[in-house]
Design a protein that fits this description.
The chain is 21% helix and 38% strand. The protein has helices at residues 65-71, 108-121, 133-141, and strands at 5-14, 20-29, 36-41, 59-64, 81-86, 90-97, 100-107. The protein has a seven-stranded antiparallel β-sheet with strand order 4-3-2-1-7-6-5.
Length: 142
């Protein structure tokens, strides 16, 4: 039916002003969920700790594609996800959860390429044409 966009990019998890850890992040976009992007992080970076029963599962954050796009140019976000430009062609993504806050630094070019590929599938402003109301309702009630 539809293709998906999936891209693995490098990011830095900022641990302190002097320390960071490199990790691979899988960015994905599904035309059947046209307003959203997904960021999947390796399970070992979970804030839940090793006792969590989902310790082997990737951590996936889902948020608005428009938020990611806007945050490349100007600070954007309200609530759990904030995106802002940073010096040296970098973009900062801040994820807030009850367990804590994660600050990640991405190469802006990687994010722009991912967004460009997502727009090839579903151009901005045409997301509503890809919504399947029956499927969405079934997921809510299922």
């Amino acid at each position: 039916m539809y293709s998906a966009v999936e891209e693995t990019v490098q990011a830095r998890l900022i641990l302190s002003p002097q320390r960071s850890a490199r990790l691979c992040v899988v960015l994905s976009y599904l035309p059947e969920d046209p307003y959203a992007v997904r960021m999947a992080f390796p399970a070992e970076f979970s804030l839940d700790g090793p006792a969590d029963e989902r310790a082997d599962e990737d951590i996936v954050w889902v948020f608005a594609r428009q938020l990611l796009s806007a945050g490349l140019e100007l600070p954007a976000g309200v609530g759990d996800v904030h995106v802002r430009p940073a010096p040296a062609r970098r973009t900062m993504v801040e994820l807030r959860a009850p367990e804590g806050t994660a600050l990640l630094r991405f190469d802006t070019g990687d994010l722009r390429r991912f967004l460009w590929r997502s727009r090839l599938l579903v151009p901005e402003g045409e997301e509503h044409l890809h919504l399947d109301a029956d499927r969405a309702l079934a997921q809510l009630l299922g």
